[in-house]
Amino acid sequence: MANVLVNAPKTAKKGDTVEIKALIMHPMETGFRPGANGRIIPRNIVEEFSATWNGREVFRMKMSPAIAANPFVSFFTAATESGTIVLRWSGDEGFVAEHRIAITVT
Amino acid sequence: MNSSRRLFLAGAAGVTLLPFAAEAISEGLAAAIREVTGGAELRTGKVTLDIPPLVENGNTVPMTVIVESPMTPDDYVKAVHVFNEKNPQPQVFSAWLSPGNGKAAVGTRIKLADTQKVVAVAETSTGEFWAVSAEVIVTIAACVEDII
Questions:
Q1: What's A67's DSSP letter?
Q2: Domain residue spans of chain B
Q3: CA-nearest residue of chain A to B113?
Q4: Which pLDDT score is estimated for B38?
Q5: What is the pLDDT at residue B92?
Q6: B96 vs A61: CB contact, 8 Å cut-off?
Q7: Residues of B75-107 as b/e, b for ≥16 C-beta within 10 angstroms?
Q8: How many domains are there within chain A?
Q9: Is residue A22 domain-resident?
């Protein structure tokens, strides 16, 4: 499991817009750089990031090699109901990571 | 009076007012943008691209795209696409939003291989495309040296 750093409020008022910031440790190797032996290092990136709130998709992003190493994403979403936000990353070489955040909406 | 200087200043000020389509952009970048817009007209405005004009290290450049939108079911930002001019590939990222986002703002950190133009395109639910571009000067390019 990759290292994940997430910043999201634990509680929110119903209808408020909350910001979610997520960072994951990943080399984001572009596939354009030669390595120490002169050969191109194969591409290894996170391709997709998505966030679901109680199973409903609230954000989705398709990344390219131009995203910096240890990809950071911030986005907003309106607080509707208490529950779980699931952040999911997937990419090359079968990379999959998931992180759950519990949020209480009052 | 120095009339040529005035003319020059007036002309220089006018450049910033040119619509997006009139700006000179490279063919690869234009093709990548056409892929998402399907040839639709790019309008200027509504989109703000928050990116530093001068970056020391192209390996991590923080950027935020903010789109002015009521984000109601009738009128919301469907997607945000970001492109660059001189990296090996023109695409940077595409993000899909819904009215439930409340605010159309997406932030991330990108790599820039050279001093170049970064373009952000926002696609609204009404089928309009809004664009903005920013020039970024990069002193140390990404993808050249190993990440330390």
A1: B
A2: 3-140
A3: A66
A4: 87
A5: 93
A6: yes
A7: ebbbbbbbbbbbbeebbbbbbbbbbbbbbbbbb
A8: 1
A9: yes
Give the pLDDT confidence score for residue B148 in this predicted structure. 44
Task: Determine the 3-state secondary structure of B33 from DSSP.
Answer: helix
- DSSP β-bridge partners for residue B121: B81, B131
Planar angle of CA B86, B92, B95, nearest 5 degrees: 155
Q: How near does any CA of chain B get to the CA of A57, in Å?
A: 9
Shortest Cα distance from A24 to chain B (angstroms)? 12
Confidence of residue B114 (pLDDT cuts 50, 70, 90): confident
Beta bridge partners of B129: B42, B123
Residue A101 pLDDT > 90: yes
**List of chain B residues whose C-beta atoms are within 8 Å of the C-beta of residue A72:** 107-109
pLDDT for residue B14 is more than 60: no
Q: Which residues of B fall below an 8 Å CB-CB distance to A?
A: 59-61, 64, 84, 87-89, 91-98, 100-112, 142-143, 146-147
Contact B111 A66 (CB under 8 A): yes
| Domain extent at residue A11 | 7-27+41-83
pLDDT at A1: 59
Q: Return the pLDDT at B28.
A: 84
Q: Going by CATH, does the domain composed of B3-140 fall within 1.10.1040.10?
A: no
pLDDT at B51 over 70: yes
